[in-house]
């Protein structure tokens, strides 16, 4: 009898937690795509198709080097009621590998029995947004023009990420389409979620660096998720101290790349959450410094033997580089305890003392920073008191004839005011200026 009561209580507790979680999802604008949802059938096709496509990726070892043909590849898998197409599968697989995303783990997240979540926001985009149930990966429908743009510039995108592995550009992890007979083909892309994990995030911003139409009323009704905008951020700052110059410089590097693609209207997604005391205390611990240094170097050095070594100098003193080398934006002093000895740590944005001058130059050339020990590390920057989630998204809008005409119309309607539809050069300059003015 007592055992049955314990089981009954345990079941009640689980149900309460589940309903509490679902209630919190609704508050965040996330709705479970269950059997009654309009997108349930579509997401089931997505899951089934992704399971087969990713299993093929797991079973087929990737090449040592990508060729031009890999960027053009299209693989079609025929299922009972539809066809699933995978574009440049090996290219995206190599990118996932560089991000240390295990293929089995990736497949498990995208194809689990748990329902996808629909993300409802105040965005003007006509796309449909979904999240995996663990909220680690974002899926977004794309139109054919956007897909063609991404595929035509995929090699340049991959080259940029190889040169700057800590870039703030959103990471595209897969591109697919689903064709149901007698229906319009639907394209969708899989991305790494910038806001992961989001359990403690309470405020999110979508920043474009302009003023017209860039205000969201926090008290308005409608969508539960309030993605605040540029004018909501006035009077606030991204406080990073020594890391502020890294952020400003990396945004300049990334927007220069986007300018070369003739695109505009991209956004920087921004959110923050307070650092807990244990996170503040552990951020500069001896073991954490080692893990973070290896993580910072691993994306260009995927094999274990290529990871940087960290040397102990003069007995108990531990340093990542000599005092004569400029430490860059991530310089902090920290003293901790390890194996009963006092460890004097100097955390800097460089490889180990065993590195050659060429390696040090390469590290700086790639504009690295010391990454946090975090799954979503490329989109996470820790300030003195807050953890920031930062990523540049929506990079498919080309400055073509339609946008040039829109620019002319807005120039007449909003004379002297800053609106989003401007030339890529003007857009990137203004975007960078906003980041510089709001970072300290």
Query: Total helix count?
Result: 13
Note the overall shape. Answer: globular
The poorly predicted ranges are 18-27, 301-353
Q: Which sheet architecture does the biggest sheet show?
A: 8 strands, antiparallel
C-alpha end-to-end distance = 63 Å
Q: Record the strand order, biggest sheet.
A: 1-4-5-6-8-7-3-2
Query: Helix share of residues?
Result: 25-40%
User: Beta-strand level of the residues, as a percent range?
Assistant: 15-25%
Class by SSE composition: alpha+beta
Mean pLDDT: 81
- Rg (C-alpha, Å): 23 Å
Number of strands: 19
Question: What report would you give on this structure?
Answer:
- This protein is an alpha+beta fold and 440 residues long.
- It has 13 helices and 19 strands.
- It has helices at residues 2-27, 40-59, 68-72, 89-98, 103-111, 144-152, 154-163, 244-260, 277-282, 286-298, 357-365, 401-413, 424-437, and strands at residues 30-32, 74-78, 83-87, 117-119, 129-131, 137-142, 172-179, 186-192, 203-207, 227-228, 263-264, 267-274, 312-313, 317-318, 332-338, 341-347, 380-382, 386-393, 397-398.
- Strands 1-4-5-6-8-7-3-2 form an eight-stranded antiparallel sheet.
- A hairpin with a 3-residue loop joins strand 13 (312-313) and strand 14.
- The chain is globular and about 55 Å long.
- The relative contact order is 0.12.
- Mean pLDDT is 81; it is low at 18-27 and 301-353.
């Amino acid at each position: 009898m007592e055992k049955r009561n314990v089981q009954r209580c345990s079941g009640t507790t689980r149900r309460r937690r589940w309903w509490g979680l679902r209630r919190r999802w609704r508050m965040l604008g996330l709705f479970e795509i269950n059997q009654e949802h309009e997108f349930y059938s579509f997401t089931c096709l997505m899951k089934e198709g992704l399971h087969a496509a990713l299993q093929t990726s797991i079973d087929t070892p990737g090449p040592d080097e990508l060729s031009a043909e890999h960027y053009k590849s299209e693989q079609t898998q025929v299922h009972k009621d539809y066809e699933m197409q995978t574009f440049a599968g090996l290219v995206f697989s190599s990118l996932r590998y560089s991000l240390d995303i295990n293929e089995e783990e990736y497949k498990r997240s995208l194809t689990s029995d748990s329902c996808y979540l629909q993300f409802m926001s105040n965005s003007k985009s006509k796309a449909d947004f979904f999240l995996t149930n663990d909220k680690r990966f974002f899926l977004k429908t794309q139109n054919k023009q956007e897909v063609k743009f991404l595929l035509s510039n995929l090699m340049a995108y991959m080259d940029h990420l190889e040169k700057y592995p800590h870039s703030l550009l959103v990471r595209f992890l897969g591109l697919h389409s689903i064709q149901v007979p007698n229906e319009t083909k639907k394209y969708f892309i899989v991305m790494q979620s910038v806001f992961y994990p989001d359990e403690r995030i309470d405020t999110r911003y979508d920043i474009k660096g302009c003023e017209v139409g860039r205000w969201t009323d926090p008290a308005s009704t409608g969508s539960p998720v309030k993605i605040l905008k540029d004018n909501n951020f006035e009077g606030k700052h991204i406080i990073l101290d020594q890391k502020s110059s890294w952020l400003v410089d990396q945004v300049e590097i990334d927007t220069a790349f986007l300018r070369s693609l003739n695109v505009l209207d991209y956004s920087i997604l921004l959110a923050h959450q307070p650092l807990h005391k244990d996170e503040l205390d552990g951020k500069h611990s001896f073991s954490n410094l080692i893990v973070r240094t290896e993580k910072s170097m691993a994306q260009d050095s995927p094999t274990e033997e290529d990871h940087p070594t960290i040397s102990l100098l003069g007995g108990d003193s531990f340093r990542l580089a000599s005092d004569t080398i400029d430490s860059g934006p991530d310089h902090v002093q920290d003293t901790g305890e390890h194996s009963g000895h006092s460890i004097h740590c100097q955390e800097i944005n460089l490889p180990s003392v065993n590195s050659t001058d060429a390696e040090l130059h390469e590290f700086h050339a790639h504009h690295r920073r010391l990454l946090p020990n975090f799954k979503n590390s490329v989109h996470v920057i820790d300030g003195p008191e807050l953890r920031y989630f930062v990523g540049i998204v929506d990079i498919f809008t080309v400055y073509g004839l339609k946008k040039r005409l829109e620019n002319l119309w807005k120039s007449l309607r909003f004379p002297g005011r800053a609106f989003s539809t401007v030339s890529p050069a003007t857009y990137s300059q203004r975007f960078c200026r906003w980041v510089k003015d709001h970072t300290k």
